[in-house]
């Protein structure tokens, strides 16, 4: 099974993933960003882009890597990764389904002011214009398709532990 934690920067995906891992037995975290980092290291480089998700191999390799990890380890993969382009999400989710892997898709949501505040106060990743610039894209995706494609958890007034508990309970019920 895959538990995909979607949402924009500052929503709490990374923090929640670590806490969910403690609540779901035999689970592990796979950050699909590592696939993008691998592709960025290809020399000579792949076509110029401002987002590695635009490279078709990223989407294909995320599906294949997740499948292979699960095939090797079993259990549950927790994947904290923002995907805001509907066609990309469709490609990934259909790829996962083609391998008969159960997928639980969550969107961790917070209002724009809370997201900005969290990004600016982030001591690990530090404030980032890249992260701030994606807030509008997240808002657009949320209204167009994203919130209809997942279970939405509003993290604005919740602690990370409360969010993780809601995710784990939802997975347990299904």
Describe the structure.
- It is a single chain.
- With 174 residues, the chain is an alpha/beta fold.
- It has a single domain, classed as Rossmann fold (3-Layer(aba) Sandwich).
- The protein is 52% helix and 14% strand.
- Strands 2-3-1-4-5 form a 5-stranded parallel beta sheet, sandwiched between helices.
- The longest helix has 18 residues, at 56-73.
- The chain is globular.
Index terms:
174 residues, alpha/beta, Rossmann fold, 5-stranded parallel sheet, 7 helices, 5 strands, 52% helix, globular, ATP binding, nucleotide-binding, ATP-binding protein
Briefly summarize what is shown:
By secondary structure, the protein is α/β, with parallel strands linked by helices. Helices cover 52% and strands 14% of the residues. It has a single domain (2-169), classed as P-loop containing nucleotide triphosphate hydrolases (Rossmann fold, 3-Layer(aba) Sandwich), CATH 3.40.50.
SSE diagram, text form:
Blueprint: E1 2-6, H1 13-23, E2 27-29, H2 33-40, H3 56-73, E3 76-80, H4 86-98, E4 103-109, H5 112-121, H6 129-144, E5 151-154, H7 160-173
Parallel strand pairs: 1-3, 1-4, 2-3, 4-5
Organism: Mycetocola zhadangensis
Protein name: ATP-binding protein
InterPro entries: P-loop_NTPase
Class, according to the CATH hierarchy?
Alpha Beta
What is the terminal-to-terminal distance?
11 Å
* Strand order across the largest sheet: 2-3-1-4-5
Secondary-structure content class: alpha/beta
Order of helices and strands: EHEHHEHEHHEH
User: Which topology does CATH recognise?
Assistant: Rossmann fold
Mean pLDDT across every amino acid position:
95
The poorly predicted ranges are none
What share of residues are in beta strands? 5-15%
| Assigned CATH architecture | 3-Layer(aba) Sandwich
As for the number of domains, it is 1
Q: What is the C-alpha radius of gyration, as a whole number of Å?
A: 16 Å
The residue fraction in helices comes out at 40-55%
Pfam families: AAA_33 (PF13671)
Protein name: ATP-binding protein
Keywords: ATP-binding, Nucleotide-binding
GO molecular function: ATP binding
């Amino acid at each position: 099974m895959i538990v995909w934690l979607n949402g924009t920067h500052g929503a709490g995906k990374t923090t929640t993933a670590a806490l969910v891992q403690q609540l779901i037995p035999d689970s592990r975290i796979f950050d699909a960003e590592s696939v993008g980092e691998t592709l960025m290291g290809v020399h000579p480089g792949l076509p110029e882009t401002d987002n590695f998700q635009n490279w078709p191999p990223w989407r294909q390799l995320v599906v294949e890597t997740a499948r292979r990890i699960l095939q090797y380890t079993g259990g549950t993969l927790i994947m904290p990764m923002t995907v805001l382009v509907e066609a990309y999400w469709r490609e990934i989710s259909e790829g996962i389904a083609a391998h008969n892997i159960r997928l639980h898709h969550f969107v961790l949501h917070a209002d724009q002011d809370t997201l900005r505040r969290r990004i600016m106060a982030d001591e690990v990743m530090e404030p980032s214009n890249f992260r701030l610039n994606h807030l509008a894209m997240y808002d657009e995706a949320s209204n167009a398709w994203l919130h209809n494609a997942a279970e939405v958890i509003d993290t604005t007034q919740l602690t990370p532990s409360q969010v993780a508990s809601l995710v784990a309970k939802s997975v347990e019920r299904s």
